[in-house]
Amino acid sequence: MGISVDEIRELRDATSCGIIECKKALEEAGGDFNKAKDILRQRGLEIAAKKSARAANQGRIEAYIHLGAKIGVLVEVNCETDFAANSEEFLRFAKDIAMHIAACAPKYVKKDDVPAEILSQQPDAQIFIKETCLMEQPFVRDVGITIQDYLNTLVAKIGENIFINRFIRYKIGEA
Q1: Concatenated DSSP letters for 100-138?
Q2: 85 and 107 share one domain
Q3: What range does the domain containing 91 cover?
Q4: Which of 101, 109, 134, 170 would disulfide-bridge 72, Cβ 3.0–4.6 Å?
Q5: How far apart are CA 93 and CA 64, in angstroms?
Q6: Which is nearest to 46 in space by CA: 160, 156, 147?
Q7: Is the dihedral angle over the CA atoms 69, 77, 92, 133 positive or is it negative?
Q8: What angle do CA 24, 89, 130 make, to 5 degrees?
Q9: Is 25 found in the same domain as 69?
């Protein structure tokens, strides 16, 4: 069974992965679009795991001020090279993350950042983690993926270790 150029283009548009990766995933999935997306997501996880130990001393601080100037966010997103930090995909990711933080108000970057005493006080730790940890939250622009999934896709595409280091969210009237 041959994979058409339109099928490859559709998968590429949906995942932002390279043409060759999309073609291989579609061939491996027997032309099944959703299965091919899962294959690409899994490959992204594998690539992200391999790159996570590499130093990421570059990146950018992204700022977002919500309409009406009542909510503002600063987020630090790190990567390995200045070249990657200035790429269109990285810039879009940083902006999306800052906007997501403004909209969803996470308290922690990842579940390891939650103090044990706070976690032990929660009636349902899993729900608390999904609501308050940025990496576990569904992405505000595509609730079918988490922020971690979005990050893994970017790592696979750019080929560098990327991580969200820290953020701060300001809201008028909140301490």
Answers
A1: HHHHH--SBSSGGGS-HHHHHT-S-HHHHHHHHBGGGSE
A2: yes
A3: 58-171
A4: 170
A5: 12
A6: 156
A7: negative
A8: 85
A9: no
84 & 43 share domain = no
Provide the number of structural domains found in the chain: 2
**Together in a domain, 83 and 40:** no
Tell me the pLDDT of the chain (175 aa) as tens digits.
Answer: 578 888 888 877 777 677 777 888 888 888 888 888 888 777 765 665 565 566 678 999 999 999 999 999 999 999 999 999 999 999 999 999 999 999 999 999 999 999 999 999 999 999 999 999 999 999 999 999 999 999 988 887 888 889 999 999 999 998 7
Same domain assignment for residues 65 and 44: no
DSSP-derived letter for residue 98 is: H
For the record, the structure tokens of 46 come out as 């594998």
Query: Could you tell me the CATH number of the domain that includes residue 37?
Result: 1.10.8.10
